[in-house]
Structure formats: structure tokens, C-alpha cells
Here is the input.
Amino acid sequence: MAINRLIFDKIEQLSVPPKVKNLLKRVLEIEEQLEISGTKKDHFRNYDHILDSFAKDDEIITFCNEHDRSQE
Amino acid sequence: MTDHKNKLAISHVTLKNFRAYAGQIEFDLSLDPQKTITIIHGEMGLGKTTILDSIYWCLYGKERSKKGDMATEEGIVNTNVLEDLQIGGKNETSVEILLHDEEGVRYKIKRTIQFSKDVDSVDRVSNKSIGGTVPSGITFLALIEFHYLHPQGGSSDWQIFTKPDKVHDEIEKIFPEVLSSYFLFDAELLNEFFYTEADEHVKNGIEKISGLPILDDARDHLKNTARQIERLVADKEVSTKPLADDMEKMESAINEYKEQREQTNLRLEEIKQEKKAIQEYLRQHDDLEINNLQNQMDSLEETLVQLTSANKQNTERIEEFLLYYTPRMLLRNTLSITESKFQEWEKQGKIPLAVSKIALQNILNSNPPTCICGTILDEGTPNREKIDSLMSRVVDSSLIQHITVGRSLLSNVLSTTEFVKLGKELAEIKASRGQFNKLHSEKKSARDAIQKKLNNHDLEEVQNKTKVLHSLEQEEIRLYGDRKTFEERIDFGENELRTLKRKFDAMTGKSNKYQSEQNKARMARALSSILEQCRKELVDQLRILTAEKTTKYFLNLVSKKSDFSKVEIRSNYQTLALDNNEKIKSLSAGQSCCLALSYIAAIREIANRDYFMIIDSPLHNISQEERVEIAQSLPRFIPGTQITLLVQDQEYTGHAQKKITGQEIPSVRDTLLKNKSVWREYLLEASKNKNDAVSNTSIREVKGDETI
Here is the structure.
């Protein structure tokens, strides 16, 4: 099932940095690919890989740390 | 890679040896943007539903399941073709569909099962790929072709895919299986929407069509990823392993409580709606008022009984008058008149004297006739003439007695006093009867009015609903308590989890070698949390959007649109049509059908897929009048969308009469042909074998002026 544009529209409305929005969209695209190919068991490997790509981005790290703390 | 198109229609279908169809049949479907409807009709059991199933099989390589049932006993390969196969013989079953978008032909999909007979065998084996059981000794080979014509390519520039996985991916992009029931569906599904499992269907429809399952999966996978990363770190650091275990258990427990809280909230919402409905009912059917009316009714009934009893006494008295007194009164009147006459005649001297006729006769019989005074009474003498005249006027003493008796009878029949008394009594009875009639009529009218009010109430139902309301209130209190418990446990769990995390972070943070993993885990959790928030907001947004679009289609399709204001989809996904006062309106079978079709059209619009719609027996369970109303509205329902109806003869060509007026209700066929919305009609026809059993089904086009 293709990601409905409504989900992407909603992500665009979020009050988060653009890099985080792109990361969210990227995550959803990965999820869609996994669903279509029927290989959802590989989700950890794929997600770990994408998180690795952004793990050194200070802006994203700072945002996520602050978000995590605000949830506590 | 193919592109997803928003508008697709099937232009041509070819079936070969598929279920009821031995040999090959093919037909076209409408690409006309004005005349969008194609009809395929036939008697029950000839293979209309098979056409729907064949298209589904062509797209997805499996049988269309109904209510989650396993594939039918009968497989997809025509049984006769299979049984007639000789050793060394080959044949195939296939379905091919050609699809157009706005620009022209775009896809061709052909799915084939080739089969050959190697040995003769009476044994039968189950075959999951084609369904049912088949003779052993036959081998099967499944093939698929997916042809794609790129819009920028030439007319022969087709890309062809034959690998099953690749074809599956391409088809899933264009026709996601989760959406299939929004372009290939039947009356059974329409019924399910609004008679049994409506809420679940609507929930699934809204969430799946929006792609929310992808969002849910991404959210959950991110959370799992965070957990796994922390796990990996913990495994490396033995000292943190127990902490990681505890964190995992705590998270699991928190999720469970959240799930239970969610279920409780849903049930509380349901209870709220149920209570509202019952309270509305009770407001309209107040039991105090009902009891009051009932008491008044009983009192009036008693009064009527008393009046009737009193009137009965009057009636008996009247009967007595009629049978006894009235004849005497009439006789008295008659004799009274007679007495007056006698008195008058006496004065006039017409009453005969009380002289004995025998005495006079003796005088006349004496020889010579001599009067008692000694006068000779010879014939012709004046005295004799006087005596003769007297003789004619004298009556027998017996008659005198009778007259005397008669005259005394008068006074014996009725005394004046009694006569006057009876006259008064009769007048009273007449007056009383008049009063009775008037009073009886008044009381009866009052009783009937109350009965009419009572008929609108049902005391037993009120009492039942009051009990149900009480029970719901008890359940509500209990659920509020449960929810509070869940929330307390979630709060406690989350506090504990935060404490454990801080300890974990403190332990792992002591060395920077796990900094990267910590960052990733934190990122994953943050992203998961953001997606959760997104989801909550989206669900409400989509629910409201679906309701708005369903309203739009519904008011276009339903006949009595002025009775409705809108369609509402509640937070528990209950789908309701509201009247102009925003009260829930109960729907007829036809209106429910319209609502289901409207919901389907709304979902299709939100999913941005204006694809073909093939509907099996859509008008099956509704009245003829409503069928015709829907047929009249169908052309403007979703203009420009290809609609193919698979209908039974009775549903399509049947007529009826209105019960009260006897007015003829036309057939659906006549209605559709009249509003010129049908592009083509096809008729399924059966050929029968020597045992008069249906051996094969064929299809032919019906000419425009043909009577069927």
C-alpha cells in the first residue's frame, strides 16, 4: 500500500527540523519497500543502517535528545 | 518501474477454462466517459460471481475469499476440461485483462495455469494453487505475464515482466490487495458494512486506505530497533544486562496496559452512545406519563362498564314496556275511544236498550201477538211496527253482558293513576337513554384518545430500557475505575522505566564507546514517539474527511435526499445517517445500500484511485422500488468511473406493482436504458447436457432493442 499523501502532508506540518522530517519520510519509504517485498523481518537491519547514516548529525541528535527528555 | 495511475478501467477480459466457462469467452467493458455502465446478467448459478473472482485471481494469483473462508471446494480450472483430459494431453486455464488509463492502453495482465496429464488415476488430491481437488496424475504450471506500456513509449514499446515476485510488486503498487474490496465487491460486502460488522469494516477501510498501517509498523519497528540496540549494548556490557531485561519487561507491561486502556476507552464511548439513545427514548416515553394514561384508561373503562350496565337495566325496562305495558296502554287508548263512542251513541239513542230479545220474541210469538199492556200487535199496525223496529235494535242479553264487561274492562286495564305513572316513567327512560348515549359517546372518545397515546408507548419496552440503562451505568462506573487503574499502572511503569533508563544510560554513558548506539536508540525512540503523535492526529482527520466525502456521495445517490443532512462517522467508527435535525435516521435496505456504496466511493477518492468498479448483485436484497431509485441515481453517482454490474435476471429485468396503488414499477433494465447510461449489456446463457444439467456457460451481447 503506497504511503498516502496525507501522511506526508502531516509530517510536513510538524514543528520539527526539516532534517527530522526527511528522516521520518525516509523511514516510511523503507517501511513501504519492506512491505512490498515482504521482507519485514529485515526491519532492524534496514533501520539500524539508516540510523547509522544520521547518528553523527548534531542537529538531529540534539533534537532527539531534547525530545526524549521532554517525554520523561 | 511502473507509475501509479489515478484512473484505470478494464477494457477487455478474456477467460479460458475458468470455473463455469469451458473454452474461451471474452467481453469488453465501457471506456465511454458518458455511458460508463456495462451490464452482465444471467440466471443464478451461471457464473456472474465467477467473473468477479476471475479478475481477482488474475490480479493476485489467489481466490477471492469471502469472510475469510478457505477457497471453495471447486477449483479454478473448469472441471469438465480437467476430467476430459487424455493421457499426454495438455490444456490451460487463463484470465487476461487489458487496462486503460486516461491516455490509452497501459497494462495487460495474463495469468495462466497450464496442465497436462501424465497418467490416468482415479485418485484425487488437494491442490492449493488452483483450489479444490484434482485427479492425481495431472501436473500444473503457474505462469504470469505483466505487460506495461510506458506513456512516453511507442505503441509496441511494452515492458514485460514474468517473474512472479516482480509482477506481484508491480501489481501491488497499482492495485494494492488491501484496496481490492473497493473496486471488486459484492452485495454480501455491502450488507456486512451496515448490518453486522460495519464498525470494523469502516475502521479498517479508513486506516488501511490512508496507509496508517505503514505508519504503525514504522512506529513499532523504530521502538523495537531502539530496544534491540539497547539489548546489544547490554549484551556487550554484562553489568547492564539485568537492567536491559527489566526495561524490556517494563515496556511490554506498559504497552499491555495502554492497549487495555484503549479498549476501555472504546467501550466507554460505546456506552456513552448507547446511553444517549436510551435516554432519548425514555424522554419520549416517560413511564410516569404512561402509568398515568393507563390509570385514566382503566377509569374510563370502568365508567363505560357501569354506563352499559345501567343502560342494560333501562333496556330491560323498555322491553317490559314493549311487551306488557305498551299493549295495555294501546288497548286502554283503544277502549277509551270505544267508550267515548258508546257514550255518544247512548246520547244519540243508538245504543240498543237493555230489553230482552227473548221477551219480545215471546210477545210476537203469542197468538195473537199481544203486548204486555194487552194491545194486540197485528201486522201492519203502528204498534206492531214499533215492536218490529225495537226487535232490530234489541241485542241479546249475552251481548249486553259483553258490552258491560267490555266497558268495565277499560277501568280494569289501567287506572288513570297507573297510566299517568307509566307515562312519566317512559318519558324518564327516554331521557335517561338519551343521556346514556351522549355520555357513553364522550367517554368512549376519551378512552380512544388515550388508547392512541398509549399505542405510541410500550411500557414493557420502557421498563426493559430502564434496566439496560442502569446496567450500562454500572458498567460505566466499573470501567472508569479500571481505566484509572490502568493509567496509574502506566504512570508507575513509565516512571520506573525512566529510572531504569537513567541508570542504564548512566552505566553505559560512563564509557563513550556506546555513545553512537545511545544516540541511535534515542533517535529511534524520538522518531517512534513523533509518528505516534502523527497517527493520532491523522486518524481523526481521516475519519472526518471520510464522513464528509461519504455525505457528498450519499446525498447524490439516495432518492429522498431532503430527509438527510449528513453522514457521521463516530470515534468508534460507527457510521450513521442523520436527518435534518441531526438525529440518527434509520435506513431502509435500499438506503443502507446507498450508504455502503457512498462510503466505498469516499474511500476510493481519499486513496486517490478512480479505478473501475465491478459490483456483484448490488441490488439483490432490496425492494423493486428502491432498486429503480438507485438505478436512476447511478449515472450521477461517480460520473466518469467505469461501473460494471453483475446482476441476476430477477434483479435486472423483474417488474413489480406498488402495493397500494397497483401502479407498475419498471424494471432496473428499463430505467437504465431510459436514462441512456448503459454502454452494453451481456447475457450469460447456459448450455445443458443430455441430463439437462448445466454443462457450460457462454456470454453474448444483447442488442439494444432486444426483449429479454
User: Anything to note?
Assistant: Residues 145 and 162 of chain B are 5 Å apart (CA to CA). The two ends of chain B are 47 Å apart (CA to CA). The interface with chain A takes residues 4, 165, 169, 172-173, 176, 178-179, 208-215, 217-218, 221-222, 224-225, 228-229, 498, 516, 519-520, 522-527, 529-531, 534, 537-538, 541-542, 606-608 of chain B (CB under 8 Å). Residues 67-72 of chain B have pLDDT under 50 and may be disordered.
